[in-house]
Protein 1
Amino acid sequence: MSDIPIGPTATARQQRLETADGTPLKSALARASRRQKLRALALVAPLALFIIVTFVLPIGQMLLRSVNNTQFSDNMPALVQWFAENPPGIDPDEAAFAALVSDLRNGAAQRTVGSVGTRINYEVPGTRSLFTATARRAADLEPPYREALLEVNSDWAREDIWAAMRGASQAYTANFYLAAVDRKRDLDGNIVQSDPQNRVYVQLFLRTFMLSGVITLICLLLGFPVAHLLATLPLRKSNLLMILVLLPFWTSLLVRTTSWIVLLQGQGVVNNVLVALGVIGDDGRLALMYNQAGTIIAMTHVLLPFMILPLYSVMKTIPPSYARAARSLGATSWTTFRRIYLPQTIPGIGAGSILVFILAMGYYITPALVGGATGQLISNQIAFHMQNSLNWSLAAALAALLLGAVLLLYWVYDRLVGIDNMKLG
Amino acid sequence: MNIRTMLCSTACLALMAGASTAQEVTVLGWGGDYARSQIEAYHKPFTEETGIRVISVDADNPATPLKAMVEAGNVTVDVAVIEYADAVRLCDEGLLEVIDTSILEPAPDGTPAEDDFLPGTLTECMVGTDVFSTIFAYDATRFPDNPPTTIADFFDTDNFPGKRGVRRNAKATLEMALMADGVPAEEVYDLLETQEGVERAFAKLDTIKGDIVWWEAGAQPPQLLADGEVAMTIAWNGRIFNAAVGEGKPFEIVWDGQVYEPEGLAIPVGAPNMEEALQFVAFATRAESLARAAEWISYGPTRRSAAPLVGVFQVDGETEMGPNLPTSEENMTNALASSYEFWVDRDAELNERFNAWLLAN
């Protein structure tokens, strides 16, 4: 800055600018702006801290859990050590079986064998009982331990179980991600598909995408005319309509979902009316819930405001004169809509669609209540593993994949439409 | 004094202050009529006698949140009502406190508690309170001429049309499927141990998969029957009894193929009010308390000395409870005792398999 010419004379060009007390202007300015930056930072700090504590840390912890599981490695120290000393390929010897027995004895005493068995059961289904049942008898076992263990259960000779234990002796593993896409490792460490009766997640991910897409589309088709009406009606009428849109938006999700149960069930209002009108027979009552139809209907209703509001806020700003100009120049009403009106609503369509789609992918209360078996989404399985099976690592892996899918979608959207073009309200 | 000891002593002081004034115990139960029976028989008299407030909270199956609470290190309940197999499993995993049977009160005639409880209803970590049964029930108005009588009829949608309510869970469901497929009760668990047995049970369930409405909470099946959503449903016998006798619904229980199991009280490791919890368990498992509970819901008491004390159904004030209990002689002709040994070890894997089956198209 100091060498920028500030005056016409040579002396002025040489002279450094100083404040009244003699400090160079440059450093005084820097100090002042630093203070200002700090003040701004202090204002943002509470929010940043809040986001770090409630959002970044839990998600980080979840991502860590999806690749880190210490249920086995913490509770079987002797065996973990044996695996560390003996590289893969070496068959378990007497020392390995002795280590196993000592760990099982400890596990029975410390009551940790259940979680060890659970961990191996993730890799080789049907083996939890092997650990718990053997541990109950571990105190009475006599050397040689190999024979003693095989006596208790010949499964202890199985290569796949030893391979699974070797894998689990490392806290870090990618196996939960493999399980989340219906894959597993075979004995040689190659990645293969899991057994047909255990394949479930890929299908569920696809179903989640498909149903979310359908729900987004229906929301768009239903929401577009309503938003247009809202934006063009005179103020008094549009306010009334707006209240009708917002009232369900403010009602508890659970209340809305259970209301749908009352309406849609076999003996519910919708079916009763149809039977009374003679549209369907009493035996031919429609299955409107406990299936995919139930999930789609209830979720469309719940998510509709998220489509209408962004659309409305965009449509409100479109001057009616454009359409009038097009019509006066000879365009048909369809052409006017397609070439003049619709392109101007794209930011609203994009915002509404991405909002509804992302929210739909994470929904689980509504599908849990009205979805039956076929209307379940991937989030219901995440909830199942969080709350019921308590396989938190698998739940974390599934959740991370879902998060990845959403981010990918966001990126694609940004490339195709541009995030700057999105208008949320 | 460094910051950690300071924090600790503050927390300890707060805890002590809390403990001295709290005098309450939180009981996690199953909701609905079953929870009501316990509130009437245990909670209210307990508060009357000791002045300790009892807070009742509900879950579809208390064993599940209990496990999550202990593993996450955030236990908020003191006593939980759990099934026998779950009690043994959670005890194995170190999630439940071992309960010293010396705290239990002897029978009114002085018999020590250990001898008074029915065999298998006292375990390391659980004190049994009642024997419940998984049965199937139907709406009598839907089958006026030809009512279902056997468990096979439940899977026969040709002769007995209508939707079926089934619990979204492998336990008892697989056993009933096998019994319906003609497997005698005493062979069910031997068969389920094998891969073919499991396949056979799922194959039987496949035959009605499209007709099933799944339920999770015990209060749902009587509701599904009452709404006409299903013609028959698998349910817990006490819930159906209360709806039928207590509320006059036209529901009938079919005892053929019932699966019965004891359940009882357990204390999670890290329960905030340990003292009160033990006091509560001792009080609730007195013979009089158990008999009182059996007057509110048709689950059999687990103490020999309690059986003769059971009077009439408190809701209608006249129905004798005896013949309506799962363990009554005439209800036991084709009955299966749920095997805790089987479910302790197979619960996780069979439920996962069940889930995959459920979600597959």
Protein 2
Amino acid sequence: MILDGKCPTGPIETSWDRHRFNMKLVNPANKRKFKIIMVGTGLAGGAGAASLGELGYSVHAFCYQDSARRAHSIAAQGGINAAKNYPNDGDSIYRLFYDTIKGGDFRAREADVWRLAQVSNNIIDQCVAQGVPFARDYAGYLDNRSFGGAQVSRTFYARGQTGQQLLLGAYSALSRQVKAGTVVMHPRTEMLDLVVVDGVARGITVRNLVTGEIESHWGDAVVLATGGYVNVFYLSTNAMGCSVTAAWKAAKKGAFFANPCYTQIHPTCIPQHGEHQSKLTLMSESLRNDGRCWVPKKKEDCEKNPNDIPEADRDYYLERKYPSFGNLAPRDIASRAAKEQCDDDRGVGPGKRGVYLDYASAIGRVGEDKIRERYGNLFEMYEKITDENAYKVPMRIYPAPHYSMGGLWVDYNCMSNVPGLFVLGEANFSVHGANRLGASALMQGLADGYFVIPYTIANYLATVTPGKIKEDHPEFKKSREDVTKQADKLLSINGKKTVSELHRELGKVMWENVGMARSEKSLKEALQRIPELREEFWKNVKVTGTGPEFNQQLENAGRLADFLEFAEVMTRDALHRNESCGGHFRTEFQTEDGEAMRDDENYCYVGAWEFKGVDKEPELHKEPLKFENVKLAVRSYK
Amino acid sequence: MNLTLYVWRQKSPKDKGKMEQYEAKNVSPDQSFLEMLDEVNEDLIKTGRDPIAFDHDCREGICGMCSQVINGQPHGPQDKTTVCQLHMRQFKDGDKIFIEPWRARAFPLVKDLVVDRAALDIIIQAGGYTSCHTGGVADGNALPIGKDAADYAMDAAECIGCGACVASCPNSSAMLFTGAKVSQLAVLPQGEVEAARRVQDMTNAALASGFGNCTNHYECEAACPKGISVSFIAKLNREFLKSLAK
């Protein structure tokens, strides 16, 4: 099937404005009759639930954490982009649009990206009005910093905790609506099924994580803002509870999963230190503003104290390979470059999987105090984890799974192919193409939540009768039975391996074969291993306790069960895409100097997969990508 | 290193809990405290016993989910560090470690080390926001805010809402938590408009939820993983007095 994103045609500069006018509205007096289910309360979900509640809809919001304020958006450090051009350095909506399309290696939809760039400016205004304490200069005006993949300073920040401050802004707006009674919060509640009746999304089935009770909630529309899936690699920068479950349950009910092979491996993370490790910690990309990446030129220097290695024996590989962007090369490029150095046996630290990020020259230039002011909390965090003082010795960093550009397929209105099912933020696929630029995730989450879904959902709701199907419908009953059955099955296996042992094994298979570099051989290897692991899981996992109680092992087992199915689609997508683009790097498709080689003739499309059953091949649907405003070109940062 | 753990186990709010002893063997100093507990749990699962329930999520010290009292100190012995960022190099071979949940009337226990902190959400719902609508606000640079005020607001806004301040306070007071939010918004022109009503509503919500009052022990600041200063409690009191005059 050829998919249609239903993007507005005509001049792109006015596309969103024209589209907004053409969409249907819901009468203010009728809004409260519509019930909207919002799953996830991060930047997209929190902002969306707050804005929809404020408009007068009856919103029910769900999150697995104990409070909406804890969603993993909170961990974003560096900043949020906007085309304000406050520094007068040549920024514009067009430039942000262009950088994002190019940064995504020409695999995103133009119209969606234009809208994102356009509303980026509203986001900053909104957050300031909420009392988000963005960094300011001595004149009292908003300060900006630079980020990878851009040659202008357009990133707004709040120390090293921008995600936290933006999330707390959205959470405060959400709290205001909870108080007003327009939003009902359901914390410690996990979505375990999407209920679809006659092809239309009608509600969800959830598990109350405190009591273990399985309940259903009807809704005239269901909105998923449930984040990304890189915990499929086990070790990642995501929170422990992040999973593909909500999105995958929707996929199993007919929603197409788009570009699952586009995963972002973030270049600046603290290297792994041992087998017992449970997660990886990100150090903000903003560190590359002042830090310089290097490895020893000579293999024999790798064990030496880095401060004893003379300047002439250091290879500042990013500055060497990409002189115009240098240490601010985009994430996919910086990550691969780090891997290359380590593959060349010049990595440093335990296991020699690490490169230096050095502040000595920045400290020499602006002084230690200035560096402390800019990155103090990151240096502290680094010291807590590694016991090393990065003001004195260079940091060690290594790439780690961080973000998923792929996600559920949505049209321009953020609606999936299942009518009534909307998908926001990281959970959808729409704007980042094959690689996301730094400080763009916060931008997308808030854009979707504050400024897109409040308009586009009305266009859908205006066509439906509110409250037509409720929890007494047989499909809801069946959904509750299916969810209960799966929990009972997991608890009855009583095998020999724990959930985390099996998750670790899946992670290893995915990292080695479907990670930073992929080949036909490695992908085929993964396609063999994943079903074997899935089979082992369903025969040999051990989950203690019972269903109707607080049971964290049962939660984890359910999430891993979904990863074990999803991993296969992700691998298949990587195998079918015979090109390299952005975060998807196939070793067979590279230029002589190791850069990604795109194949626009054959792969300039969104690959959206339709679930056909476990152990069955999914069906591929394509949405061709047209570039009318940015010329398809080789993406160069040299 | 090898450690002996004494952990609070309580199956549900109705059960009577007790401390139980576990051995943590071959612990690496580079492990985080939670990774050490993960391994203890792996052993418990394999021997068919119920693993220790504890809250955690981001494991990078920012989400505020993790919440354990370690040897009598919320978040353990290291200054300005959440449990998830506490590493085992802070302990030595043979140590006995006592692990308990947050204890406060406003935080009912859920299971083992997990408590219900919904009362903190209720305080924010009472007024921890500016009542601006989505859209239709002024340009971000329309209103310059002095760097000092912006920095002060940011110092207050660093609160992660973990509740260690409450757990450490002999009165189970949430005044550091409340004071931080009240101060952040009171010092910014965007929040000043509603400052009087906000401080009243948030304080009342805290008292109604069962939190106590501040009697200047300063345990909260010492326990706070983000080093939120008790001066925000002074600011809270000042704002409260000011609001009475309005």
Protein 3
Amino acid sequence: MEVLLALMTGLLYAAGLYLMLRRSMVKLIIGLVLLGNGANLLIFLLGRIVKGAPPIIRADANVLTGLYADPVPQALILTAIVISFGLQSFAIILFKRAYKVLDTDDLDQMRDTDDL
Amino acid sequence: MLLVTGLALSFLYPLFLAVWPGWVRGRRAYWTAAVPALLFLGCLQAWEQVMQGGMVILDLPWAPSLGVSLTFTLDGLSFLFSLLITGIGTLIFLYASAYMKGYADSARLFGWLGIFMGSMLGLVWSDNVITLFIFWELTSISSFFLIGYYQEDQASRQSARTALAVTGLGGLALLAAGLLIGQETGGYGLAGLQDLQGLLTASPLYPLIAVLVMLAAFTKSAQFPFHFWLPGAMKAPTPVSAYLHSATMVKAGVYLLLRFSPSLGGTEWWTWGLTAAGGITMVYAAWQTLFRTDLKALLAYSTVSALGIMVFMTGWGTEAAIKAAVGFVLVHALYKAPLFLVAGILDKVTGTREVTQLAGWGRALPFTAAAGLLAALSNAGLPPFLGFVGKDLVYEALLAQGNSVALWGMALAFVTNVLLLWAGLQAGLRPFAGKPAPGSGRPLSPGAWLWGPPLLLALLGLVAGCWPSWPGNWLVTPALRVTGFPGREAALALWHGYGPVLALSAATLLSGALLAVFIQPSATRSQRWMRWERIAPEAVVHAGYRVFSTAATRITRLLQNGYLRHYVFAVTLFLLVVTAIQLVPLLADGQLPYRIAAVTVYEVMILVMMAASIGFTVFTRSRLVAVASLGVTGYAICLLFVFYSAPDLAMTQFTIDTLTVILFVLVVFRLPRYLTFSTPAIRWRDGIQALAFGAVIFLLILAVLAEPVTREVGDYYARNAYLLAKGKNVVNVILVDFRGLDTLVEISVLAVAAIGVFGLLKLRLKPTEWPEK
């Protein structure tokens, strides 16, 4: 399964990068979201994946025992998801404003303020 | 102790000036000379200890683990240089106080002069290669600021940059040489280095060390082909030219060679390197003086030539030759500095430095003329001036060699001396002789503060020449002892008896005088010569500089062109290539885990769904479809988190994904369809690059998965989550307890983003702020 997930991560990276190379600002933002998802999946995979063993201590125990998923990558990804939401929402709203003022989605037309 | 105080004073004085720049305006300005004068007296007072073999001024550990200490010693060689630095410095400060009268920011000049003086003293006192290097660079830096003193003049700034580039290059060479010496000898101290001469010269690194030391000395002392920065440095105010670029700083290279002569000298590399560079420089620069009509340019080239003589003599390495080099340092300082100062007075009073336009000023400027004449005669080597003694030393040392190479050297020295004699007469005599040009009225008198310092220096040259045993015994002999020779008494003498040396001196005088009669400085000749400047080292360096800067501009345009997607393309392409080089061999080895074991149906279904939604996101022509399928991708990842034991991640991903999609839809649902901006070729190029990048990421994950994993950190949290933090959900405990501060900062980031979003939503542009449609 790891191999398939790795393939999927590669696909997310490829799609994200391809969209970031486009001239449309909406595509740029979508590409960024895909790339972020790919990065999260990458960290998740590198921490090794385990089925059915979340890092939660049982009610009658004091420590985690047996097989359990590594909590550190999970904590990192949780942070990353939240931070990328901050970035995405700001980018989306910024795009909204820019579109309203400039009436274009083309990044090349947004390079400088004087030529418009 | 006095010297330490003085050194500190010369560095603190600029600070004082920075706070109170008005100090050097008006009559108070002459007090600035108190700083160098105090240091001069301090050095004189150390005379007795120096005669007994040197004294330690200061010894402080600085970086003991690196073997670097702040050790300053004053021995014979540094004594000679210290007296030149502080003595001539005093006169220069006095002269500059009068010269810079009327300049609003003369404080800047005096500040940098103070820093320069302190650094130069530090340079000659340093007993450690590393501190030597630091002060060496400090002199380069203060020289940079002094050459560029007239900041508003582009030529000044250009010259300052050239000088800094050349001398800075030499500084780096010196550091490299110092580190290599430290590596070979196990220490950075200069004292006792001559005892390790055998070790150093036998080392396989010796040629490199010698070349690096020479590079440092040649750039600083303006030896061919690095000489060109010195004539350029004449853009500086004249006191600076006289002080830094004639009397002291440019001699730092000679000082370095003399200092290292006992430890690195005595080899073929050393002798040939120094004599070749010095020999070429002295003749080339002396020849150049024939084609200069600007007084300061003429003096600059004659200075380069004189420095060439010093390097040339140092190279021979015999006692007589070193004595000639050391003696010439003193002789040259006493006649060249006054010539510069006289040129400065002429410039100030008459408004021109063109030697072809200057004549007959002797009557109007009697004292200046006297100073110029005395200096020119000392330069000419007329007895009983000190210049005569200096020239004799050179001839004597070369004659004593007695081989054919030395005879060739003698011929070179003869030609050089004749040409230098000519140059000295043009600078010191010609402007004052003859009839005044018509229409040049009586100028304002320059005042004693201007003509006093050059006259005093030139008179010193006469007095020292009349009683040469004084400078010989007190200055030259102690310096000689440092360079590893016993240094007999009466090192200098006026009369050497009848012999070939006297004949050579007389021949030099006669030829120089004849040359002066028959060849006059001429603007046409100098212009005709200027076309050869295209192949001079300076032109070559500047052409190289232009190529370099054009190439840099092109590369910058190529890489930093303002298109985000080009940046992304370049960055990922680089990453791609670098990572692929590492990963492809692994692929060939077949060590990567390709096995697909234990896959369930629902997992495959999720993956298929995900792949399909990614495809839709990329290829759809509707923004709304793209956003919706982006949401599907997010939910699929959410499900993966559920399967693989990450419930917290699943919840977060679900929430965030939903929010993002809603936000996106709100913004884009009214926008028209995508426009196609790029050509198919570009899309194919980007597609291939993107797929290759995805493939590299895939291989990277496989390569990492093939390695064993360490879970120390995770296990620590798993063990202690409940015991230390009283929480059962380990991921939550990490976020809010163990790494609570990080989470706080993260929340702040979100808050900032929220403020930004709020601001953008509430922003109401004024009509004037809308771009014209």
Protein 4
Amino acid sequence: MPENGKMFKPLDPLLHSELRLAVMSILIDAESADFVYLKAETGATSGNLSVQLDKLQQAGYIEVTKGFKGKMPQTVCRITDKGKDAFAAYVEALRSYISTDKG
Amino acid sequence: MENNFSAENSLRLISETIERSRRTMAKNSGKPMILWGTLVAVTSVIIYFLWSKTGSPMWNLLWFAMSAIGAVCSYKMGRNHEKVPASEINRILGKVWMWFGIFATGFYAVLWIVACIRYAAHMDGVVGVDMTMIILMMMGLCGAISGSVMNQKAVSASSVTATALAVIYLLLLPDGSPAQILTFLILGVFALIIPGVILQHKTRA
């Protein structure tokens, strides 16, 4: 418990990671995004991004659809309602940390 | 990199990522407005000359040809652009203008059906609906909504001003004048082309 007696809200460990948080921040504002776009926007390597997307998918925060666009394989990610709720709760928790720090 | 950044850093990362992604998604969002504005402006001038020369309002059917050309150009433009996901804002704008297209085309089709029924039933008089005024108002409204959704006051202001100018011009014309179609030239330029150019400039900056 902090000195001023306020309780910190727990931070979702799945979202408290730079790359996973960046991916969720992109998906929260987009209908869907493909792997190539996420890779370009986050600057992550393909391997690392795949691993993090898998973790988010297993948690039910995102849906991953694999298919083809023309002859090219395409992986499309979309945030789920559970993911939106988790993201909102995470941001709310961050705010409680900052307001506690300032208070 | 993992799990050791502060609350401030997390919030900064979220806002910076969203902002950067929004900028990427907003790229080229002004181009469809410029395309449709140009088509509307050019078509209205062509219809005006043909209507004036022949005295027949049937040339208004060219609006359907314009819609078909616009749809093909939009499709090709979308394929040529950098592949970026659709943002919620783009999705909403697409729906707004899609419903404008459905209402305008549907309304036009209904008027033609009614005119045919009246002709077949040997009914006298004409259908007392000012279609130009209604389409103008719908177009201006959609333009103003688009500006609000994009948080671009200049786009909304341009649409409202263009609609007001077009309505004043229309009301000053004699009934049935071919010049009424030039109101779409005003709206095409001020409600679509200029906002489109503004948007392109802002998203490129």
